[in-house]
Amino acid sequence: MTALEQIVKTECIRDLLLVFAISLAFPSIDRMFGRYRFDVIASGELVRTYERLFEECVLAEGVGAVAIKGPNWKAPQFVIEKRYVE
Fold first, then answer.
1. What's the pTM?
2. How is residue 43 annotated by DSSP?
3. Burial class (CB in 10 A: 0-12, 13-18, 19+), 20
4. Residue ranges of the domains in the chain?
5. Cα 33 from Cα 6, distance rounded (Å)
6. Tens digit of each residue's pLDDT (9 = 90 or more) over 30-52
């Protein structure tokens, strides 16, 4: 299992979006989840969570299709703890 696969399968959707949405456009995020956690796409949970992060000002509109950190953005715990750094 790759590190990316382990992260996507282990961490909550909200935390994953906090990290990946500020460096990837949503179609790339969608493909990543499609590969490792299709159930969250099929249920609509991925899109709902992504939209909610904008509503809560955790993410903000950036240039192009990539979001930027909003005023309420905080690093998820798995990033602070450097859980997946080898």
1. 0.92
2. T
3. buried
4. 3-72
5. 12
6. 999 999 999 999 999 999 999 99
Do 65 and 59 contact (CB within 8 A), yes or no? Answer: no
Q: Which residues of the chain have pLDDT under 50?
A: none
Q: Which residue in this structure is represented by tokens 């249920």?
A: 43
C-alpha R_g of the chain = 12
One-letter amino acid of 52:
R
Assess contact for 37 and 11: CB atoms under 8 A: no
Residue 1 token pair: 């299992």
- CA dist 80 and 62 (Å) reads 24
